[in-house]
Amino acid sequence: MTIAPKVFLSFAFEDMALAGKIANTLQENGIDTWWAEWCISAGDSIRQRIDEGLGDCTHFVVLLTPKSIGKSWVNAEIDAGLIRKLGESTRFIPLRCGLPASDLSPLLRGMLSPELDPTNVNLSQLIGDIHGVSRKPPLGQAPKVLRAAEAAPTEFSASATAVARLFVQSSKNGKHHDPSYELARLATELQLSEEDTKDAVFELGPLVNNYRDKHITPEDALFVAFDRFWMPWDAETDALQVAVGLINDPDFPKEQDKLAEHLGWSARRLNPAIAYLADRALILFRKSTSGGPWRFSFIMKTDETRRFVKSRS
């Protein structure tokens, strides 16, 4: 079980009403509070009860006001609280009300001293500090650029990897110029500066086309290189499957729409596979000019297709 924090509340008699509000509020919020009005009964030894309160407190809170700052008894308790602080057994909290920090002793001025408004006593921050509630907001996610690099061990920088992932995941059909971004929009999407984004695009070299920062688009080869990191397929493996079909099956479809239907693949998957073969001159091909989803309209096998399949067997 968590042990409740224990506060020793030091104050001047003249500040009794305010001290009572503080003591009750702390007690109501799970903070076991030593306050003279509760802890010293008739016939008790005042010194002994104070020693007991100081002896096991986790936090020493002194209410510093224009009236209490010069009280010898309050200063004696401050001395005892500081000694416990030096022994690292007690947190020392100077709580000011109507007293500027400049009026504190040099030793107390070196500590954070919260200030109370006597007309609206709000102790929520003090209560949170005593309970050890952090003021720090929850830790958010790392920028997209770092998450992209952590998720895929490419040979490129984190920013270049992030550009590649964005193109791979946002492309509809996996062919060149799909999609297209302006530099400013691309930088915003990746949470990068425009300068770093431009450098990332430059690093990707022939895999990306940049027309005056107005149209930054992927080339076919980008999907061939990067699909395997973020899509449930690998363009090279798919290309081999297509090549095997061309070599072994005389009825294997040559038109892309029929080929996609035969394999059960979308244009997004088929285009990079054919691009792999076309870029390496492993097939004869005709590129599509229809503007539809297909990058190629027709393919044929060659001796290079056969050699490719043979080399992978």
Report on the architecture of this protein.
This protein has 313 residues and is α/β, with parallel strands linked by helices. The protein folds into three domains: 6-130, 3-Layer(aba) Sandwich (Rossmann fold), CATH 3.40.50.10140; 144-224, Orthogonal Bundle (Arc Repressor Mutant, subunit A), CATH 1.10.10; 232-311, Winged helix-like DNA-binding domain superfamily/Winged helix DNA-binding domain (Arc Repressor Mutant, subunit A), CATH 1.10.10. It has 15 helices and nine strands. A five-stranded parallel sheet has the order 2-1-3-4-5, with helices on both faces. A two-stranded antiparallel sheet has the order 6-7. Helix 8 (158-170) packs across helix 11 (220-230) and helix 12 (235-248) crosses helix 14. The protein is rod-shaped. The model has no long low-confidence stretch (mean pLDDT 91).
Low-confidence stretches: none
Gyration radius over CA: 37 Å
CATH architecture of the largest domain: 3-Layer(aba) Sandwich
Q: Could you tell me how far the N terminus lies from the C terminus, measured between alpha carbons in angstroms?
A: 66 Å
Strands ordered across the widest β-sheet: 2-1-3-4-5
CATH class of the largest domain reads Alpha Beta
Helical stretch tally: 15
What structural class do helix, strand and pairing data support? alpha/beta
Q: Under CATH, the topology of the largest domain is which?
A: Rossmann fold
Number of strands: 9
